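hi! just following up on the protien thing from before. the input was this:
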Amino acid sequence: MEQTVVLITGCSSGIGLSLAVRLASDPAKIYKVYATMRNLAKKERLLDCVKDLHKDTLDILQMDITDQRSILDARDRVREKRVNILGMTRVMTYRNSVISCVCGCVRETEEQMSLIFLHQQQFLYMCTAYRMSCALDFCLSVVFMLAVCNAGVGLMGPLEAQSLATMRQILEVNLLGTISTIQAFLPGMKAQGHGRILVTGSIGGLQGLPFNEVYCASKFAVEGACESLAILLQHFNIHVSLIECGPVNTDFLDNLQRAEPGDSSLQQVDAHTRSLYDTYLQHCGMVFQNAAQDTEDIVKVFLDAIQSTNPAFRYYTNNALIPLSSPKISALDGSQYIRNMSKIIFSTNGKGEQK
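and the predicted 3d structure came back as:
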């Protein structure tokens, strides 16, 4: 039985790491995993997890989804092996939460079956939960399996406090990084005549969150890109799926770009906005404490999507988040959702008590 070659990005920690270890540890050795990361100096954690037990199922490569040359180099290295996979996962940490992106691409021999799996690195859904994950495809004989990750970077704080350079960086990583990766591998997938794209999404890409305007804009854009591709790619027998996540217990918020109380950038913001931001930060901490999932819970959802013979377009890792989106459908003018979310976020004192 030939191996399915999977390339995952963002494997230095979080979901990318967990997924790589899970697939490479498959007892049947179905997968050949290429775990990629932007900085290979951070590979020790992954090596510690596998403990040299998976020399025939795991390799580690360098790949930066914001660098087109790096993407192409990784793609070419995968193709040199004939049985290839390209995957991207990026992780940002915020205390115990993670935004990850995973891309996996597999290339086999003749059975024309491509899989593109996009693990969108995502920001935690700070209002009801943010999270993210990664995944790969599982076919036994795959000609070219590609997973593209929307590297996710979090940006939180009053819009007036954000610089243009910072906002551009968020769009560069979250949106253009994902699209650039897809661009590099999509022609090969189309040529195979079969495939699957799994994208790790975020609840922040489905509904707006205060103080996350630019982040949500980037995630909304990724959702739109994936939905547009899904309509087109069905004509190539390529399935696109989004894995919508909330908070996850991994390192995420340490690298989250956010305005902290007392920062000089907040001094230009009016007092009422600063007060609302303080309330929002309390709400985020409470939500993450109560709703965060473990990485293994996310990996299981990815495996369910991967193994489905008729994959859905969206999978939710936490069903508790679904009701929050229902007002957007039942009240199409958007007013009900806005009122509900404002009440949920700003009517608590950070301890879950109503003011």
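The first strand starts at residue 4 and ends at 8.
Confidence is low (pLDDT under 50) at residues 80-144.
cheers
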